[in-house]
Specification:
Elements (H helix, E strand, L loop, with lengths): L3 E5 L4 H12 L3 E6 L18 E5 L12 E4 L6 H4 L3 H22 L2 E7 L26 H21 L3 E6 L2 E2 L10 H10 L4 E4 L5 E3 L1 E2 H12 L9 E3 L4 E3 H12 L5 E4 L14 H7 L7 H15 L1
Parallel strand pairs: 1-2, 1-4, 2-3, 4-5, 5-6, 6-11, 7-10, 8-13
Antiparallel strand pairs: 9-12
Helix pairs in contact: 1-6, 3-4, 5-7, 5-9, 7-9
């Protein structure tokens, strides 16, 4: 069935892939973005599609449109961007959630919130399950993002309980792939750009801290399955690839696949940087029949090819 679908943050890395996939499924897509961190080049190839519409808008202000579904993905997601204007980051998460929930309530739309593994903070439970409440510093330099997303989840569940709104919440773990920004400060793009330019590859800490990397096509599949899940299945649901890698192993893989002559150097670990991050995806497997299928090797090769072509 053809639906009218709103994607906030649709010009971003994840949002643009989501817009593209929804169009391929035959839906009408309204992409909303203020392009604070999104990039028009991400959606340039979609502009000629008659089922695609682009609206420049900041979600901290109300939006009045008629839609069937809302994917709320508007928010800077990399530390460099979200720490640049932390007050605006919190407003985007909180005011953005309020405005999109208000819109969903008015037009009786189903709405999904892009939350994050950062709600777990520097976790004391490993791997992280959805019933773990997290260990988050509420006044740190990362709090604008961590606590903003936690508050957005609160709002979603209060709208569900108070107004019986049809909500879904997913917690996205590290995701990578084509259309990442070369200067976004995320570890995969950092390592690839440093390797391709033959600069030193910078590892913060001792390189033993871990992350789990999910390729973008796997994530988008999971997001759409969650949106199409039965009413009443709200989540939150972890979305990520549980295969865990140290920063050192990731750096060595990037060196191998780029053929770079870069050296690996070590610098102090930033404040509040989590030492372990791995999703437990039992819920996604059970209720969505979803798990990541793209290996780190295949995903890295495709991402490296993208950066080679665009740099």
């Amino acid at each position: 069935m053809n639906k009218k679908i709103l994607v906030t943050g649709g010009g971003g890395f994840i949002g643009s892939h989501l817009c593209e996939r929804l169009l391929n499924l035959g839906h009408d897509v309204l992409c909303v973005d203020n392009f604070y961190t999104g990039n028009k080049s991400n959606i340039k190839h979609l502009l000629s599609n008659p089922s695609f519409e682009l609206l420049r808008h900041d979600v901290t202000f109300p939006l009045y449109v008629e839609v069937d579904e809302i994917y709320n993905f508007a928010c800077p997601a990399s530390p460099i961007y979200y720490q640049k204007d932390p007050v605006q980051t919190t407003k985007t998460s909180v005011h953005g959630a309020i405005n999109m929930l208000g819109l969903a309530k008015r037009v009786k739309a189903k709405i999904i919130q892009a939350s994050t593994s950062e709600v777990y903070g520097d976790p004391e439970v490993h791997p992280q399950t959805e019933d773990y409440w997290g260990k988050v510093n509420p006044i740190g330099i990362r709090s604008c993002y961590d606590e903003g997303k936690r508050c957005a989840e609160t709002l979603f569940f209060d709208y569900y309980r108070q107004h019986q709104l049809d909500i879904k919440v997913i917690r996205i773990f590290n995701t990578y792939g084509p259309r990442m920004q070369p200067n976004d400060g995320r570890v995969v793009s950092n390592f690839i750009v440093q390797a391709l330019t033959n600069n030193d590859i910078t590892i913060y800490g001792d390189g033993k801290q871990t992350r789990s990397f999910c390729f973008i096509s796997d994530l988008v599949e999971g997001i759409i399955r969650m949106m199409n899940s039965p009413k009443g299945f709200t989540g939150p649901v972890n979305m990520g690839n549980p295969a865990e890698f140290t920063m050192l192993a990731l750096a060595e893989s990037v060196l191998k696949f780029t053929g770079s002559k870069s050296k690996i150097i070590f610098k102090p670990l930033p404040l509040d940087d989590p030492k372990q991050r791995q999703p437990d995806i039992a819920l996604a497997k059970k209720y969505l029949d979803w798990e990541a299928s793209v290996s780190l090797e295949d995903g890295l090769k495709e991402t490296i090819a993208y950066f080679k072509a665009t740099m």
